[in-house]
Predict the structure.
Amino acid sequence: MSGLRIGVLVAVCAALCAAIVLPAARPAPQPAAAQASASLTNDPKLIEDLVYANRILYDQDVLDGFGHVSVRSDKDPSHFLMSRSMAPALVTSNDIMEYDRNGEPVDARGRISYLERYIHAAIYRVRPDVKAIVHSHSPEVIPFGVTGTILHPLYHMSAFLGAGAPIFDIREGAGATDMLVRNNAIGDALAKSLGSSYVLLMRGHGFVAVANSIPRVVLYSIYTPINARLQAEAMKLGAVDYLTPEEATKAAVATDAGVGRPWELWKSRIGKIE
Amino acid sequence: MSGLRIGVLVAVCAALCAAIVLPAARPAPQPAAAQASASLTNDPKLIEDLVYANRILYDQDVLDGFGHVSVRSDKDPSHFLMSRSMAPALVTSNDIMEYDRNGEPVDARGRISYLERYIHAAIYRVRPDVKAIVHSHSPEVIPFGVTGTILHPLYHMSAFLGAGAPIFDIREGAGATDMLVRNNAIGDALAKSLGSSYVLLMRGHGFVAVANSIPRVVLYSIYTPINARLQAEAMKLGAVDYLTPEEATKAAVATDAGVGRPWELWKSRIGKIE
Amino acid sequence: MSGLRIGVLVAVCAALCAAIVLPAARPAPQPAAAQASASLTNDPKLIEDLVYANRILYDQDVLDGFGHVSVRSDKDPSHFLMSRSMAPALVTSNDIMEYDRNGEPVDARGRISYLERYIHAAIYRVRPDVKAIVHSHSPEVIPFGVTGTILHPLYHMSAFLGAGAPIFDIREGAGATDMLVRNNAIGDALAKSLGSSYVLLMRGHGFVAVANSIPRVVLYSIYTPINARLQAEAMKLGAVDYLTPEEATKAAVATDAGVGRPWELWKSRIGKIE
Amino acid sequence: MSGLRIGVLVAVCAALCAAIVLPAARPAPQPAAAQASASLTNDPKLIEDLVYANRILYDQDVLDGFGHVSVRSDKDPSHFLMSRSMAPALVTSNDIMEYDRNGEPVDARGRISYLERYIHAAIYRVRPDVKAIVHSHSPEVIPFGVTGTILHPLYHMSAFLGAGAPIFDIREGAGATDMLVRNNAIGDALAKSLGSSYVLLMRGHGFVAVANSIPRVVLYSIYTPINARLQAEAMKLGAVDYLTPEEATKAAVATDAGVGRPWELWKSRIGKIE
């Protein structure tokens, strides 16, 4: 065999090795990261936090197939951002849509919106301090909403419950319904029930939590069901010494200040998205 | 050594590399998907949903080693489909069998049937609106069945409980038994107890859920134990404001309409089968 | 370069490829399966089931770092087999030891035995029908043992509780102790409390379950804590309709007969051992 | 082509194969184990146990994003070791810092300390028998602290509760606060409440556990919430027969002696760190 042919055989060998080994050694490259919705000009960090909030709340059993989380727009404070209607577990930055002050999508492009976006729109309209909102069907609070039992802060982690979580009964806003906040009128009634609190129970439905940042609304949403579970137990043991109003105010400041650590831990459990 | 031999050695090297690396780099191909039972002419999508229902109900702790789910045949509405007797966690399309109106297998071919298939047969006979049935031993409902406590809908997610879940006591149908629905006579007594409801508790046994589709019967089966758990808690807190009959009717329509999203989420947790 | 040198270079290339790729492609072979204890002549299937029982009971949260399971020897019915003292989660066939009728190891070879093996020895001595025993610290039964509340079968899955589970208070057997069954005298007092039942609660300690096979004692051990949890809930709802004696007897026969399916499912969750 | 060039090509082929396959076949070597903090001269085994304690307590749901564990220094018994302020789930040996008798870091180098280190400092000052301390927000104990209900040992596993766990109400030490032990004055009040016990509940906050070794303080911290959960259930069933003082003393000795087995099991669940 000629030297040329040998060289060709060797090169073929190397090429064959490369062709076989290379794809195995380097897994097929991940699909190119989906482009963030072209029309959104918001701070990408805000959108990333909103996506993480969706994933964390699912991971922490606060949201299941239902429920949603939103954030006030940093570009236009009368607008807010929320995922299109889908399971929070699967939300990516590509699913985030912008809504106007009435809860209507700015640029739907055929994407379906959450039916109960009016919960968010109504609260943003009357609470300028609120920057993020969660609506959850978390089971643990249901017994409180259906018995008119007020949730009070049992410990410093749920100090944000303050003087107690009010309860919204949709019958007061709209008579006999299917329990869903389907329009701004019901949304306004709900926001009125919320008042200046950070958590509102919804009879026969779930709860709403509001805060001045995404990490904080996620913390409130995780600790509200925990407080419900513990308060139910405590009430069976005897008279309960809740946090006093002064303790609740001070502890809420401390817990708010320390939200960075659990936020990073919750994010680390999710890992990289996309 | 001749050029020819060198070429052979190089080729052997390349082949050796390929023979070693290729199987390691590319996992052995999955076994060819099992053939769906040759005798079934039903819509493959129906069979696939039935298989997923088995897996989802196990994943969601509604079925353990016991319990079963069936669907009315789309080819012959007096017949129904159900897995052969085995743990729901492991059901594949190859395990699905067809049953006649009396709950007897059409083409057993030596495969064992679930002993309590008469629960399904009896209900399909008297409820033309029912297209899918689940029988579960889910623990959370047991305390209700053994104390004669009626399950009422606490929130919109369990609105399908309507005016409350009736309770079947097998002693009324068959005296002292081993608690199992072993024949059509007991099945008929059970179906009579169910009436027009979507959920029936079975004293000292578990529950049955029925619906007009597989995704809906799965949703009812997942939320029935949750409602039981929450109702037990609520009853300890005080007088309970259940959904009113009108709220339950309206909310059930809304929840039924929205079953697609949780169904897809539950399927995504299972992933590809086979 | 000479043909010889080319051949050598090619061979070196192949050898280098092999040396690099082979270890990566084939993970280091598993250590040769540990030899079953040379001195045991028991049916290997019996030993395998015993190992699986350890793993299953840990997987099902019946055993944690403590507790143990044994089986009567098929070679000498006055002897029994049990793991050396270690966490059940980690037991392999190599850890199984043989014990005589007094609970002393036949061939210790330096291996430490479970301190409370006398629970097993004492029961095997007086219950010829018993072939397998589990001792568990499962928390759910503790409230029953410390309040003298009898566990009764709530549903067919726990029918083996029969007329109710007796409670052993070690003070009656041995005065003030550290709660552990450290010798045959205490073991005899415990076996006397067990009587002809299949489950015995131990005040301030846990429970013991006995059966005529390993799969059945595992089933009894899994469903005893579940029954405890449900009975606690039921008793808060109202007067409880337990299984009648006749129902319990009949249902126990049916559940015993059907133990194969959950046993295979529990084993499949463990997978291959070693 | 010359023999030399062929040889070069073959060598290049082999080198190319090696360069491609080697990194894929052998995952990038772990970062060189982080150097233990250069300034710490403690027994590396002590530091390793402290790191494991952090990971185990998170794995066992005793610590979440908050709470901490410390160990008395083996070099200077007036000092103690604890991680810098971070989530216990992520602690490595590199995060361990040394604190003096007042709870101030010996060599901070810019690292932030846990705000509530004064809990640990104060207890080490007055309890020479204590070698390790855990502070946890574990929810299960909260109902007891807020209702003044004393935790008593229900079974041998929680015998360390002895005559009952005292409750510290921070209002007695410092009036209306944010519930946090922010200085040595509050720490001293807390240590006084602890007295000679091994567990102290903190109203509206959580609990503290102390022991003479890291494995034991981890065991106490895991079984305290379990005892709380069971005691709540038992109290609903009837009058509770807790361990008598003599039983508790004896059982605590036995459980302490046997801590090695669960400690190894808990460590095996964590696996290798770094």
User: Anything to note?
Assistant: The longest strand of chain A covers residues 206-211. The longest helix of chain A spans residues 214-237.
